[in-house]
Amino acid sequence: MFFLPIIVSDNSARLRPTSLHAGGVLDGSRVLETLMNNLQGMAYRCLDDAHWTMIFVSHGCTDLTGYTPSEIIDQSVISWEMLTHPDDRARVRHAIHVAANARRRFSVEYRIQTRSGELRWVVERGVAVSDEQGDRVIEGIIEDVTERRAMLDALAQAESRYRNIFEHASEGIFQTSSDGRYLAANPALARLYGYPDAQTLIDNLSDIGRRLYVDPTRRDEFHRLMQTHGEVLNFESEVYRHDGSRIWVSENAHIVRDAQGEFICYEGTVQDVSERRHYQAQLERQANHDLLTGLPNRVLLGDRLEQGIARAERLGCLLAVVFIDLDNFKFINDSLGHTAGDDLLTAIAERFSTTLRGSDTVARLGGDEFVLVLNDHDEVSGVISLLERVLSEIARPVTLSGREFQVGASLGVALYPEDGRDAQSLLKHADVAMYAAKDRGRNNFQFFTRELNRVAEERLNLEAAMRAALEQDAFDVHYQPKVDHLRRIVGVEALARWFHPELGAIGPDRFIPVAEETGLIVPLTTAILRRAFAAARRWNHRRERPLRMAVNLSPRLFLSGDIVAHIAGLLAEAGLSPTQVELEITETVFLGDSDRAVGILRDFKRLGVSLAMDDFGTGYSSLSYLRRFPLDIIKLDRSLVTGLEHEEEVAMIARAAISLGQSLRKTVVAEGVENQAQFDFLRFQGCDEFQGYLLSRPVPEIELSGLLADGGLIPKAPS
Ligand code: C2E
Ligand code: CA
Ligand code: CA
Fold first, then answer.
1. Distance 443 CA to ligand 1 centre (A)
2. Structural domain of residue 179, as residue ranges?
């Protein structure tokens, strides 16, 4: 019920309580009167009529309205309806009646006009009750809330001002939780991050650490700074927008805490600084790159050299610094003009970039001087073949002002660590070597170390001699028989032979690597296979059991281009059945892309040739290769044969390798068999075929024909 006791009144403002404290003997009416008259506001009872005729009002009436109670009661001067602001009257009546009909309390806020004409806001709270006669009266209290309303208004205005700033700011504004969720975001932030609106951003971007920052450690850094300083200033990071594109932003943020100092959230602003970052990056690029060619300049070269040296130090591999000077640049520049000169430099720079690997650096020092930094080479021969490619790239004709020109270059090479341990001395020595190259008649390269020049020269001579020999078809093939346990010749291995009129006999161990590096391996192998296939064809012409012709395929050739079709073509050309051919490959072919290797092997099998794993026992995980790859034959490497009759360890490994081959149902061939003891041991262990000096050295075709004519049996040497 209402907080006032039910009171009755007559026209005088006298009160009479209807109930009192149980057992109380105090003067209830006095207490009530005191209470009533000291109330903030005005207690009242009125009739539910058109005037809200007041039956009783407390003393507060004077403060509230400027009229005394007696002026209000029974409308002796003014009715409550008249006091009520005309615009509010209907609303007040409606509110009171709705509540009264539902037997509920009401509370309604409206304006009254005081005696002095001032407008005041009041809140009236009350309830409809029945009086002693059973008529509906309203009882309640009316308070002045003008001040409170003014305060709330001011607050609401302030709030809406802030909301306006939040909604319309051009900066992104956010509140986030410590576990990386958005609690609030403004439209600018949504725009910045590419979301249709703030709510979508809040709903979607649930893991700021991982979803927003390109570098996921940025969120941790944000936390760390917050923890130590309570704020972050100009915190720049690259972030993902909704569509996955990236921008750079700068954040300013601080921790929001409650009155007790407990963490509530992070709050801050975000600005898009991509443009400035790009501009900065561009400046940086300009500082580190050559404007004409876009290549790194001297400054960046210094950095790259330092990095390269550190890397070579760590990995123990070679680092080559190559100084390059174009040979007739000055002539072109002077005679055709600077534009042509620039075009030439740009064209050459582009060729460098396509010839080198990603890990290498090519820098332009200015003029027609370039420097290469070559990383990760294990051997000088790799550097040499790369430099040959660079020279031939430079030598390709360039079209300038509608005419073709050819330029050469002089290259000087210094190697780390032999020729210098720091960037400065490496550059200096490469420069010295470059002058040596110029002295030697241009369009060549020189190492700083003399010994290497000899190696390089030999290599170059060898390459030139090989080209000539190929043209003259001067490569020869020898054949080494393979025999079964009864010493019957069952096959031969074709081995390349080269006798140079001046250089003498050059072994395949020397020229095959050069052929691989220079690409001459293709014509060389073609020449050898042609001879070998033709020989096999001749021998097998009338043989009941054809000899198998084994040929070696170098790993690089095996993996290059369409080797299967190439060999099929050569077989067809020779009229030799693929079933009479064995390909010997080493396990190096499986080290890289072994799926590709398996594919090629399958194609060869489909063609009908047999496949042998050469040099078995020298590699790493031979067993897994044997299982996975469709091989028919394994050839035990000579190192598993040499000394097996003296050394138990060698014998043990040989025994294990043979039984492995047998359990996988491969034909097991032993190579490098040099004496009877080895032969006997290997035969006893179950080797299928034998090859080695004990039986025969590699011999020319004619000699092998002789052996075959004698019955194809290799007699045991008299012991
Ligand atoms: P490989 O395939 O392991 O060939 C066997 C090598 O061992 C041959 O050396 C052969 O002359 C030698 N040899 C045979 N029996 C004995 C023996 O009882 N004792 C000793 N100490 N050596 C023996 P060669 O002809 O110098 O060939 C060396 C390597 O060059 C070959 O090793 C092969 O990998 C490669 N090669 C030779 N010819 C060709 C070819 O036409 N193409 C390719 N890609 N590589 C070839
Ligand atoms: Ca071989
Ligand atoms: Ca071998």
1. 36
2. 169-272
